[in-house]
Design goal:
Layout lengths: L5 E2 L9 H11 L6 H22 L18 H4 E7 L11 H4 L2 H8 L10 E10 L1 H15 L8 E5 L1 H7 L1 E2 L5 H21 L3 E5 L2 H7 L9 H15 L8 E4 L15 H8 L6 E4 L23 E7 L9 H15 L5 E4 L15 H18 L5
Parallel strand pairs: 1-10, 3-5, 4-6, 6-7, 7-8, 8-9, 9-10
Antiparallel strand pairs: 2-3
Helix pairs in contact: 1-2, 2-6, 7-8, 7-9, 8-10, 9-10, 12-13
Length: 382
Amino acid sequence: MSAAIRTTHVGSLPRPPEVLELLVAREDDQEVDELRLAELVRSGVEEVVRRQRVLGIDVIGDGEIGRPSFNTYLFDRISGFGATSKSGRRGTTTFPDLAEFPEYAKKLFARREGQPALKMWSCQAPIARRGEPLARELEAFRAAAGELTPETTFVTAVTPAQIVMNFENEYYTTEDEYWGALVAAMRDEYEAAAAAGATVQTDSPEVVINANLRLTVANWDWRAHVERGIEALNAATERIPRSQLRYHLCWGNYVGPHHLDIELQEVLPMIMRVRAQTISFEAANPRHEHEWEIFEHAEIPDDKVLMPGVIDPKTPIVEHPRLVAQRLRRFADIVGIERVLAAPDCGFATSSWMLNVGDPEITWKKLGSLVEGAEIASTPPR
């Protein structure tokens, strides 16, 4: 039995300015010195690994330093996608809370300085995985971290359902074919990362996006879409040990009202059927923090590890370590200290150019508070 609550994060950390500049240029279809970018990514990974270790983070990641965002990195890994004029299911249709506040939504989605032009993507050709980008990413992580082990390192990847939600099918004759091609491609991605020795975290904010569409799309059977996504993910990860899998759920890492978010209790029973042993979810932001209460009565399989967010990556306010400890103890009292993994709600830079807290150093200060809070929560009260 573990004597302390361990700590981690959800994946994305602030990119070095030089890396960010080249990533943005590449996203804008400009010529980029790829060798220089690779060198900068490698040194950036070394730095974020070093800083995580200095803070005392137990399960470290590479910060997604070389990725333009948590999902569009996919286009380096998988062929078949291209820019499209179609808008897909994104925008205020996807975010009904923002539709009530159009002026705020306009400001939120306005192009920022240093941000590439927004592109819509779709599947336009056969899907096939390119293994080299992942191999390079894992090699840079291994060079910085040493041996990759499931107990001390993790890598991230999107789920098939997240891809289907964001990038519509314009090539395959049926949606079943599209799903099947994605499951096959992502199975290769997950298994390659697992074979390298790290825990694989699959990111699936699409669960809540699907639920949000119930408010704006007539006759939208969101539960059926979520169930299909879980079935696809379980099929794609069936050969990876459950203990080597984490699953991340969030309500969209954007600074909005979120007053129409579906309640966690509506999706939790489905999420518990995901093969992953560890379940990551938001538990720090002011819209969802109260939902820790549902775990007191929820059916939580004995092998599940809870990874509650106890740091909010959308605010520059640095949480007090005692508040972090209070949040962690709520879950430790329910499932036991050995089944709690402390983390932020979500990534700090899910798109490379969008740092919600405004300053990279605040990110590290908040992660330091995470570590301190976990230490306090792990100390038995006198």
